[in-house]
Amino acid sequence: MEIRAYLKDFGLSSKEIEVYLALLNGGAQPVRKIAADTGVNRGTTYDILKSLIAQGLVSYYHKKTHQYFIAEDPEKLTDAITQKERQLTALRGKLESFIPELKSLFQKTGDKPVVRFYEGVAGVRMVLADVLDACEAAKEGYCVYSSADVRPYLHAAYPRFTEERIQRGIEVKVIAIGEGGQLKGLDARRWLTKEKKVEAPTYTLIYRGKVALVSVNDAKEPYGMIIEDAGIAATQRFIFEWIWGQLEVEDQKSKVKS
């Protein structure tokens, strides 16, 4: 089981693994026997053998009227990985030279809103990482409508989010919806309501030219989206700041009454 898992991580398909292991165990064999032993049809077996030969894992020779295939020494796996590393290094060098051109194409989408969807816990983490990266690069803070219902999903996706935010020196204003939430550092918080049961199924973050939304589907699986549009972000920030100001007035009224 561990051998198959390793070969899968190496990059072999399930059928390639079966053919390769059959050759390791059985020695030199013609295609007909390999196909019979693995249950893979002969045409596919030929294609797999070509792939394994190209990777340096299998070789062949002719004996009388038959072609026999044989596995190379397993040390060839290490050689193949080294070769892949060289190819990736070369590819990285070429890619870096094209990054400026690719970025120019990417930035041309600025004339219309761009919406990106992210699924699951990993997707939500990507959304939160974008908030931190964008705010740190712009040296700006961000605003949040913090829903008590969704908050636990964010903590699960990015447990050290608040610590990293503080380490990067990013300030945040929070309008909390529902009970809970407390100051942690470089943050200010006001409550829209502290009621326990509030129907607010979306957590909203407003930051540098973007609005990020995190919610939960009917199966209780989190997902997120990022709307990239300066106008939409500016409008949402304006509304947020107006509500923030109104909550300050309400706080002052409460203090006077008390």
From TrEMBL:
<protein>
    <recommendedName>
        <fullName>Transcription regulator TrmB N-terminal domain-containing protein</fullName>
    </recommendedName>
</protein>
<dbReference type="InterPro" id="IPR036390">
    <property type="entry name" value="WH_DNA-bd_sf"/>
</dbReference>
<dbReference type="InterPro" id="IPR051797">
    <property type="entry name" value="TrmB-like"/>
</dbReference>
<dbReference type="InterPro" id="IPR002831">
    <property type="entry name" value="Tscrpt_reg_TrmB_N"/>
</dbReference>
<dbReference type="Pfam" id="PF01978">
    <property type="entry name" value="TrmB"/>
</dbReference>
<feature type="domain" description="Transcription regulator TrmB N-terminal">
    <location>
        <begin position="7"/>
        <end position="70"/>
    </location>
</feature>
<dbReference type="InterPro" id="IPR036388">
    <property type="entry name" value="WH-like_DNA-bd_sf"/>
</dbReference>
